[in-house]
């Protein structure tokens, strides 16, 4: 008999019970009764009081001051079956019972798991068992001597082997009673079934008709679905045709817009050419108008003098000839009329040109709105396609990761089983080598326990690695989807984005690609840079000129550029009182761009809140203070408030973080 962790037997202890009488001698408390309790326990004893304990967990070694408690108790009883007393085809039979501190227990016969009933049946023909009196414990002898006649009869029947047959008889009677009850139940069920045959037949008929109706319903649904498919196909074709028509209309509108631009440019040139002549004509008209007024005043004075003198004619006065004056006045009037006619024609032409320009501008705005709507639709479709592509990729990666994980688990399980078999073989060989030798047995048990613990640690390590790999795959899928979404958000659709995609020589990408901002300060730096936070980086002023000219010629919209190579300003923004220079928050990868960034962030300090910003401005009004939340405050202006959409620097930092997380998760999964 071998005891491991049973009561006082913490280490594995083997007792060889040779033929004859075996006496166990020792002082009180040395564990003599624990040997008898182990015999009763391994043969199926279920009463904790019989084992001198309060609960069944009390049989597990509870620990001492120098040794920790164990988690399970195990007793193995090996019986010599060379004479075939036990009804089993083995010359040696090993009965094992294991109890865990969690409450679970296991039984085994020759290492094969079994039930308690199997052990009781196996020992019933040998006179041993949990309820047989082969074990007379402390206080039991007195109860045997003082037993009544009925109790003594039970002892005699047990010794004669009658008790097992009586139990079998009782078990057979219980089975017969259960069978009789089952027969009665079957009779009741048969009568009930016969009574329900008629309604069941009607229900079967209804079910058959229902199947026919369901088949018709399926056919009708199939026809409806086919009709819906045809309608949807037609709608799809119509949508495709509408899209084609819209594209053609967009092309026509763009052509009309271009033609309107040309006409507007021509009209502006005509207006510019006619402007000097119009000014000259206006000056002549003003001069002639003044001359007419002077002549009119002179005539009025002459008429008044004639009226006062009472003569039909006036005395000739020295001066110019009146006929000459009248001739010049008539010529001036004719010239004035001609200029007035030309002025009216020019005004009419100008009004007509202005009307045509207004109509062309309205047509241009309509075309731009239609074009913007088409661009939005295309962008929405691209975004949906990218999202679906990301989901498909994530699910495909999860499937591949699951298949790879399953293969690794199988390989790990095979290796663990091989190691367990090797450890068991080594332990069996060691047991055979030291059979009958008590010295060193404790070391072998400890080696076996160490091997078992190592196997459990290995299994736990494998489970932990599998769990870590699963978590890494989940993290990789999550961060991959976030990275793709942020990449779509960073994709520019304005003039700067078109310029970056054009591959212009001398273009070095965008500003977020060159800047590394301290965590938490992305909104602050973006607020200070303003529109330049989304600008493209060019290597010289000449490249900037070419980029602006290309954007204007291609009608790509506004472009924002940051020119590298600008000299850094002298001096730095003052520090102290919770403020520090904004240049300390930014790390520039390109040395040529460092001077430009320092030029933009000169005299800018970063503070935590608006109170610190107010103190910084009070100390030096020439500074510009920016808070962590992105509020900008200076002596001349301020802007800020509730946060809006994330800045491009914050999106770029989140994209870089997601990319790094994807790489880290991939490395974890591969490791």
Portion of residues within helices: 55-70%
> Which strand-content bin applies to the residues?
5-15%
Task: Note poorly predicted spans.
Answer: 311-318, 436-442
Largest beta sheet: strand ordering:
2-1-3-4-5-6
Bulk shape? elongated
End-to-end gap: 47 Å
* Order of H and E elements: EEHEEEEHHHHHHHEHEHEHEEEHEHEEEH
What does the largest sheet look like?
6 strands, antiparallel
CATH class of the largest domain: Mainly Alpha
The overall number of domains is: 5
CATH architecture of the largest domain: Up-down Bundle
Supply the number of helical segments.
14
Report mean pLDDT, rounded to a whole number. 79
Structural class: alpha+beta
Topology:
Blueprint: E1 2-4, E2 13-14, H1 32-42, E3 72-80, E4 92-100, E5 105-109, E6 112-114, H2 116-123, H3 140-145, H4 149-160, H5 162-309, H6 322-433, H7 441-490, H8 495-502, E7 507-510, H9 511-514, E8 515-517, H10 522-529, E9 536-538, H11 541-553, E10 561-563, E11 580-581, E12 586-588, H12 591-600, E13 604-607, H13 610-619, E14 624-627, E15 632-634, E16 638-639, H14 648-670
Parallel strand pairs: 9-10, 13-14
Antiparallel strand pairs: 1-2, 1-3, 3-4, 4-5, 5-6, 7-9, 8-12, 11-13, 14-15, 15-16
């Amino acid at each position: 008999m071998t005891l491991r962790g049973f009561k006082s037997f913490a280490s594995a202890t083997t007792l060889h019970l040779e033929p004859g009488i075996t006496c166990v001698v020792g002082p009180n408390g040395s564990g003599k009764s624990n040997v008898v309790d182990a015999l009763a326990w391994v043969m199926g004893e279920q009463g904790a009081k019989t084992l001198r304990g309060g609960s069944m967990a009390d049989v597990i070694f509870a620990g001492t001051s120098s040794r920790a408690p164990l988690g399970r108790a195990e007793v193995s009883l090996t019986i010599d079956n060379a004479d075939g007393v036990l009804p089993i085809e083995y010359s040696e039979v090993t009965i094992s019972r294991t109890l865990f501190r969690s409450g679970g227990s296991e039984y085994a016969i020759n290492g094969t798991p079994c039930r308690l009933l199997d052990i009781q049946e196996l020992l019933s023909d040998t006179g041993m068992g949990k309820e047989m009196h082969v074990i007379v414990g402390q206080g039991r002898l007195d109860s045997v001597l003082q037993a009544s006649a009925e109790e003594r009869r039970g002892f005699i029947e047990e010794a004669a082997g009658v008790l097992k047959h009586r139990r079998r008889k009782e078990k057979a009677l219980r089975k017969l009673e259960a069978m009789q009850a089952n027969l009665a139940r079957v009779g009741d069920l048969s009568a009930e079934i016969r009574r329900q045959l008629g309604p069941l037949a009607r229900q079967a008929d209804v079910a058959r008709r229902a199947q026919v109706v369901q088949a018709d319903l399926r056919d009708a649904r199939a026809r409806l679905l086919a009709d819906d498919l045809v309608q949807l196909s037609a709608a799809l074709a119509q949508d495709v045709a509408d899209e084609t028509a819209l594209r053609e209309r967009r092309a026509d509108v763009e052509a009309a817009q271009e033609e309107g631009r040309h006409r507007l440019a021509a009209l502006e040139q005509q207006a510019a050419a006619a402007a000097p002549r119009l000014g000259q004509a206006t000056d002549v008209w003003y001069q002639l108008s003044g001359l007419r007024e002077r002549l009119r005043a002179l005539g009025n004075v002459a008429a008044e003098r004639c009226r006062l003198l009472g003569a039909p004619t006036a005395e000739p006065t020295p001066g110019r000839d009146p006929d000459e004056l009248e001739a010049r006045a008539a010529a001036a009037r004719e010239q004035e009329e001609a200029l007035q006619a030309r002025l009216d024609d020019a005004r009419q032409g100008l009004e007509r040109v202005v009307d045509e320009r207004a109509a062309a501008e309205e047509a241009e705005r309509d075309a731009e709105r239609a074009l913007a709507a088409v661009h939005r639709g295309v962008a929405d479709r691209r975004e949906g396609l990218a999202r679906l592509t990301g989901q498909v990729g994530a699910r495909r990666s999860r499937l591949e990761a699951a298949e790879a994980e399953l293969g690794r688990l199988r390989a790990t399980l095979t290796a663990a089983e091989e190691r367990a078999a090797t450890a068991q073989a080594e332990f069996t060989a060691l047991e055979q080598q030291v059979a009958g030798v008590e010295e060193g047995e404790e070391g072998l048990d400890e080696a076996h326990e160490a091997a078992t613990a190592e196997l459990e640690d290995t299994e736990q390590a494998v489970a932990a690695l599998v769990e870590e790999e699963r978590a890494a795959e989940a993290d990789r899928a999550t961060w991959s989807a976030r990275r793709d979404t942020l990449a779509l958000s960073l994709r520019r659709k304005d003039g700067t984005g078109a310029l970056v995609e054009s591959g212009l020589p001398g273009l070095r990408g965008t500003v977020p690609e060159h800047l590394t901002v301290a965590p938490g300060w992305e909104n602050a730096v973006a607020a200070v840079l303003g529109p330049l936070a989304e600008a493209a980086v060019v290597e010289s002023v000449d490249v900037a000129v070419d980029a602006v000219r290309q954007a204007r010629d291609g009608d790509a919209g506004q472009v924002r550029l940051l020119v590298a190579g600008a000299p850094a300003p002298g001096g730095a923004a003052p520090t102290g009182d919770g403020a520090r220079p904004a240049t300390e928050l930014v790390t520039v990868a390109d040395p040529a761009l460092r001077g430009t960034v320092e030029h933009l962030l000169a005299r800018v300090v970063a503070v935590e809140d608006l109170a610190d910003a107010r103190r910084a401005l009070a100390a030096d009004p020439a500074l510009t203070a920016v808070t962590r939340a992105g509020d900008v405050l200076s002596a001349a202006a301020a802007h800020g408030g509730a946060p809006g959409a994330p800045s491009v620097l914050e999106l770029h930092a989140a994209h870089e973080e997601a990319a790094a997380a994807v790489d880290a998760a991939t490395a974890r999964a591969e490791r």
